[in-house]
Design goal:
Length: 491
């Protein structure tokens, strides 16, 4: 647990933390590795480029990442590291500066590819959490103190795995607590095996105003006077107790969803809030200044973006217009495919690997290069493997990697199956099948295509099976083109 014996003074009794959840779904073609072009973001090639220009880059250049709490999703971070290294390095440096100053960072990890954990198996949850920690450590140079749950979707098992992996805190919506909570302080959630985790609850009315009322964030001084100060606990003010106001929103709010709000954020953090008596802090730092005193239970299978629990990512939900039954069909297709892929992986690697599950959990570190090839095989090879055998196991590990990517939450978030987000996840499923090898293709496709056939668009009337056939045809074309190019270079 955190060291709460710090002598750091607490002269300022009012604290403000602004948390930005910075995330974009994976937008890479699984065959070429290129970012797919998207409509609606012109003159930019894709939304990663557009949002970087409007939000990530200006916030990084203004130094806002030094002052806020934030999580940078691994799929976004991977893209940014390659396509805008200057912005990426500024964000990493912001956390490093906080770490050197206080001994802990202001960045949080995120479960790896934004899967809704309460809808995942125990093993999927563990893998996603371990991969998220590994990605964070490789980028920021230290283990994370906190972890952001995708869509803040929570259950006890996910919290227990996080605590087991030494994650100390997370952020939830106040309605995810089993009872009333005072959002001006953190709470302890007791878990199994004597473990616990700290939960910060964001201020819901303030979050809603910031997120959905553009007038709220025009003037930072007015924001503090008319929105921030009224959210303080009057009884605590009278007795001089510490208070924390937490605003936790999508980070893209500050410049993309609301233009120029990076300037509002900068002035709020550096001028308006301090001038009105608020000290700006990260969540990790506040935890050391004022550790939790009270306990709370959580409501399982809840989230911040669906008041119906996690139904939005599994079927029809009043949060989303139209018939959402396609989501159940798509998830059923992915669940059945995942079970078969797991069986193939265990069968094909059982003699080559000491512990196939442990090898999968180390794979993101190996894939990114933070865990070297020699060390990876030293840890995991059960016998001495030839180059061909190593490549075969690596191909199967990549199969499992894409099997996880197909569950990315964005595929199930919106109203229709004939969109870019479900298309991407279907492409990842198709790539996992390709990586399994031709001997397994019919076995994997048979039931999967039947399930995908029942996921039909209410707009275009196309099915998820139609999408699957289209992306597999595109993959064959791309692979043939790459083979021709390799042949030309070899000649």
């Amino acid at each position: 647990m955190l060291n709460t014996g710090t002598p750091e003074a607490t002269a300022k009794k009012l604290y403000l933390c602004v948390h930005g959840h910075f995330y974009q779904p994976p937008r890479l073609d699984p065959i070429t590795g290129d970012t797919l072009q998207e409509r609606g973001c012109e003159p930019y090639h894709d939304f990663n480029e557009k949002i970087t220009a409007e939000c990530y880059r200006p916030n990084a250049q203004m130094g806002n990442f030094k002052k806020i709490s934030f999580d940078l999703g691994p799929t976004l971070a991977s893209w940014m590291e390659k396509h805008d290294p200057e912005t990426y390095n500024l964000i990493v440096a912001a956390n490093r500066e906080h770490f050197f100053r206080y001994g802990y960072g202001n960045a949080m990890a995120q479960a790896y590819n934004h899967t809704i954990l309460p809808l995942s198996s125990s093993l999927e949850k563990r893998t996603q959490i371990i991969w998220g920690i590994a990605d964070f450590q490789a980028r920021f140079g230290h283990r994370p103190e906190g972890m952001w749950l995708p869509e803040t979707a929570a259950d006890y098992e996910s919290l227990e795995i996080m605590a087991e992996q030494s994650i100390e805190y997370t952020v939830l919506a106040p309605w995810q607590a089993a009872g009333h909570v005072d959002t001006t302080e953190p709470y302890i959630v007791r878990l199994g095996n004597g473990r616990s985790i700290t939960v910060f609850f964001f201020d819901e009315p303030l979050n809603a105003a910031v997120s959905f009322n553009p007038h709220t964030t025009i003037n930072a001084d007015n924001f503090v006077t008319h929105h921030l100060q009224p959210r303080l606990n009057a009884a605590k003010q009278a007795s001089g107790q510490e208070q924390l106001i937490l605003v936790a929103t999508d980070g893209e709010l500050y410049g993309h969803h609301l233009p120029q709000r990076h300037q509002f954020l900068n002035y709020l953090l550096n001028n308006a809030a301090p001038q009105h008596g608020f000290e700006v802090v990260s969540l990790a730092r506040y935890l050391r200044l004022s550790p939790p005193r009270r306990e709370v239970a959580i409501r399982e299978n809840t989230s911040w973006s669906c008041l119906h629990g996690v139904t939005r990512w599994n079927g029809s939900c009043a949060c989303v217009p139209g018939d959402g039954s396609w989501k159940g069909s798509l998830r059923r297709a992915f669940n059945r495919l995942a079970a078969k892929i797991d069986m193939i992986f265990a069968l094909e690697t059982g003699l080559a690997l000491r512990d196939p599950i442990a090898a999968v959990q180390d794979y993101v570190a190996f894939r990114s290069g933070s865990l070297g090839r020699q060390e990876f095989w030293k840890r995991h090879a059960a016998v001495e493997l030839s180059d061909w055998q190593e490549k075969r196991v690596e191909r199967l590990l990549e199969m499992v990697y894409f099997r996880h990517l197909m569950f990315t939450s964005c595929a199930f978030f919106f109203e229709d199956v004939d969109r870019m987000e479900p298309r991407n996840s279907i492409a990842y499923a198709a790539n996992a099948i390709r990586l399994a090898g031709e001997n397994y293709r019919a076995y994997l496709e048979d039931q999967t295509l039947g399930d995908l056939r029942s996921a039909r668009s209410g707009k275009s009337l196309l099915t998820a099976e139609d999408t699957y056939q289209r992306v597999t045809a595109e993959a064959r074309t791309a692979l043939a083109r790459m083979d021709q190019e390799r042949g030309r270079l070899a000649a």
